[in-house]
Amino acid sequence: MQDDPEPTSVDATPTNDSAAEELSNDPIDDALWNDPVAETLSEAVGAQGRDAFADVYGSHMTDYPPGRVALCVTDLARGRQLAAAAKQADPGIDLSRLDLYRCSYAERTLVAALDKINTADDQGRLLGFPLYSSWLPPDASGVVVNTTAQGAASQALRDRLAALTGGIPVTVVHDTSAIPIPA
To answer: Is 143 helix (H, G, I), strand (E, B) or coil?
Structure first.
């Protein structure tokens, strides 16, 4: 039995393999469905990342680009070990479709930072500014907090968020599309 090729890493350029070529190039159709082979791979690396490799797992994205999976890890050597563990757990996955990228933070570190922000707020507010939502960016580079335009412009709010997260970068935005409609 032939071994699968190693997953590619940071400087890799994804290739056009047959599964990617089979996609219709219709942005509406392709946006609705992930490539099934990439989805299976994504599920396998996600399971390992959130369990045995949570210390290095940042995030993963399916069909990024189509037919491939991007896996963000804090340590590329451990990322390759994660990929090998995923293959051992699910021998049917195709590691040649996996691209490894270095990220700044593990998902569990960023989730802990979000928890600190969410528990420090006072009824959805911090320093008087409403916190509408918060999330992790797909590249695991920090956290994002959505507030009012005044909150987004407030250096005091930025400083408080940085103190709460222990220096993990916090991007403060004013995104009106995510603001709840008053009852």
So the answer is: strand
Q: How far apart are CA 82 and CA 85, in angstroms?
A: 5
Which of 16-45 are b and which e, b meaning 16 or more Cβ less than 10 Å from the residue's Cβ?
A: eeebbeeeeeeeeeeeeebbebbebbbbbb
Q: Which of 29-38, 71-80, 133-142, 169-178 has the lowest mean pLDDT?
A: 29-38
Instruction: Say how far apart CA 74 and CA 86 lie, in whole Å.
Output: 17
Residues 6+ apart with CB under 8 A from 161: 117, 126, 145, 170, 172
Degrees (nearest 5) of the Cα angle 151, 59, 67? Answer: 125
In this prediction the pTM is 0.78
Kindly tell me if the per-residue pLDDT of 11 is higher than 90.
no
